[in-house]
């Protein structure tokens, strides 16, 4: 659904997202959404038929915004250096706003409530892993890194970069170090290992 920001649909979608952020999927009611958006419940049902369709539209809308940002972060230039690429990924991810990461909170709540619903998280993971794997395949072909399994390397870097930022942004687990120090140390360990 393509949504115009000045429409009633956009008001409802934004209000629904705010309610989902504050109260979660189960506590989000069409009555609360109507009050938050300044429309009546009948308008919500006329535009979206039911709460389930509305929530799916909201999740899809905000997920696409988030995926577009993630894709832009993980794009690369063929001549880009490995350390610059990985450090840039981490730094740009950490600069995403809490609002950007709200869709992750909603997705994680959804998985807790309905374990078979891992679609949102899978889309994010697949996008990032695909970009990282493509980047590492190119680096292997260019002889910049030794011939390792690019998928395993992608998973490792995904875990360090994206999951670290999720810990900070979604779970408020601050590592008590500056971002640059963290990314420099991560790259040092990646390139030099942990052996003395």
TrEMBL record:
InterPro entries found in the cross-reference section: Homeodomain-like_sf, HTH_TetR, Tet_transcr_reg_TetR-rel_C_sf
Occurrences of domain HTH tetR-type (ranges): 6-66
DNA-binding region: 29-48
Keyword set, alphabetical order: DNA-binding, Transcription, Transcription regulation
GO molecular function: DNA binding
Pfam family, one: TetR_N
Stored Gene3D superfamilies: Homeodomain-like, Tetracycline Repressor, domain 2
Source organism, top-level taxon: Archaea
UniProt name for this protein: TetR/AcrR family transcriptional regulator
Organism annotation: Methanobrevibacter millerae
């Amino acid at each position: 659904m393509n949504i115009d920001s000045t429409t009633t649909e956009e008001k409802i979608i934004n209000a629904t997202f705010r309610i989902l952020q504050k109260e979660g999927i189960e506590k989000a009611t069409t009555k609360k959404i109507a009050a938050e958006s300044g429309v009546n419940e009948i308008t919500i049902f006329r535009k979206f038929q039911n709460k389930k369709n509305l929530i799916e539209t909201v999740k899809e809308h905000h997920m696409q915004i988030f995926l577009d940002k993630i894709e832009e972060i993980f794009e690369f230039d063929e001549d880009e250096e490995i350390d610059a690429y990985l450090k840039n990924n981490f730094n740009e991810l950490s600069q995403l706003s809490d609002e950007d990461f709200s869709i992750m909170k909603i997705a994680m709540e959804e998985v807790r409530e309905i374990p078979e619903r891992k679609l949102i998280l899978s889309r994010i993971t697949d996008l990032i892993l695909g970009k990282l794997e493509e980047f590492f395949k190119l680096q292997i072909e260019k002889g910049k890194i030794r011939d390792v399994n690019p998928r395993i390397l992608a998973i490792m870097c995904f875990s360090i970069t994206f999951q670290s930022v999720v810990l900070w942004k979604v779970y408020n687990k601050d590592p008590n170090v500056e971002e640059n120090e963290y990314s420099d140390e991560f790259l040092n360990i990646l390139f030099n290992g942990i052996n003395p």
